[in-house]
């Protein structure tokens, strides 16, 4: 699977799957989550509400992933995953890696060939950018999906992109 680092807005990526750094309610919020819901329109929210009414009455657990329509986004599906909140006192890197692993598995089950990830947990959840990139790349580099041939890590802002490029080059 080819890995591309892209600076930009994940809501304009033309891929099969866009990954949403969701909150556990699945009902929208700020940051990437809010942008995906706004740009994708009411169809995404309707499917998220249906998921809450059926399988995820208490919300989507951290590290898990679930798919919905992409609505008006230039993608086929949105895979929602809930990242962990950063804590210097509690090791949560495994949960962060689970977000990527489980999102890849859901996308592969859908038959997707391309996927775009935001930098999960690196926004309001406070994960240090360099380590967030390292965690994401560790999963993406080790992945052996059946259908997926391209994974994009979509980075918001020049500084975040530059950090990702440096971490990527370091291997």
Polypeptide structure, described:
This protein is α/β, with parallel strands linked by helices and 171 residues long. The chain has one domain: 3-Layer(aba) Sandwich (Leucine Aminopeptidase, subunit E, domain 1), CATH 3.40.220. It contains five helices and six strands; from the N terminus they run ββααββαβαβα. It has a six-stranded mixed beta sheet with strand order 1-6-5-2-4-3, sandwiched between helices. Helix 3 packs across helix 4. The protein is globular and about 45 Å long.
Shape: globular
Q: What is the count of structural domains?
A: 1
What name does the CATH topology carry?
Answer: Leucine Aminopeptidase, subunit E, domain 1
Distance between the termini: 16 Å
**N-to-C SSE string, H for helix and E for strand:** EEHHEEHEHEH
How many strands?
Answer: 6
The residue-averaged pLDDT reads 97
Poorly predicted runs:
none
Instruction: Note the main sheet.
Output: 6 strands, mixed
Q: Strand pairing plus helix content: what structural class?
A: alpha/beta
CATH architecture: 3-Layer(aba) Sandwich
Report the portion of residues in β strands. Answer: 15-25%
Number of helical regions? 5
CATH class: Alpha Beta
CATH superfamily: Leucine Aminopeptidase, subunit E, domain 1
Strand order of the largest sheet: 1-6-5-2-4-3
Rg calculated over all Cα atoms: 15 Å
Into which percent range does the helicity of residues fall?
Answer: 25-40%
